[in-house]
Predict the 3D structure of the following.
Amino acid sequence: MLAPNAFTGRTAVVTGAGGAIGRAACLAYARHGARVVAVDRSAEALASTAEELAGTAGEVLTVCADVTSSADVADYVEQSLDAFGSIDAFFNNAGIEGAVAPLAEYDEAAFDQVMAVNVKGVFLGLRHVLPVMIRQGSGAVVNTGSLASERGLPGTGAYNASKHAVAGLTRTAAAEVGAHGVRVNAVLPGMIDSRMLRSLAQDLSGGDAQEALSTMGSVAPLGRLGTPDDVASVVALLSSPATAFVTGACYAVDGGALAGMANGG
């Protein structure tokens, strides 16, 4: 359990802050005292997140940015440093689900889009934030992977490939920067009740999304869908001094689904 002031005096940067998990992470950081930099490509989604953060005591900066653009990533890093002087926690979270289709029929442009956001976006976040943390001699990064980082899920080949890549980037970065006092881990969300999961359920079910969601929830031994807060609490823990000896790990937040899930779904 985190102390109420676990992030007091620290700055947390969150990409994909307009989505369900990103927003929950922003709130978790803020409630524990962090100054929060919320980053998203949607100004409307950012405004909604900022409105929720207004009820917390922490300072908040919102930045519209495209995580696939090196210039935009450099800009949100620069704005974070200009506003708060450090980046102590980085939730490298922005991602998209992509199309649902067999690999033999997968659209090339759709594949490229998923890889650009989910892999290049994570890479660029690491590329621009890690030098800051190396100079500081401290910092904690949490990347967002997925159950698809560990399993092959039929119909979502681009997403699977991208999330396997996130696990690889996480382990490589952890091996490279540990000597500088910087930690890099990943969370692997399972079936989390969110816009992304509902979109996938709609596509995979052929129309009966609610039945698909119920089936997805039953995959976990805990017997339910997860919530964004379930993920955010683990993100905050992995970003905090409470996990000072944890790096290079990929933490499943999945209600136990991976424990009993055969490869292939």
Summary: Residues 193-225 form one domain.
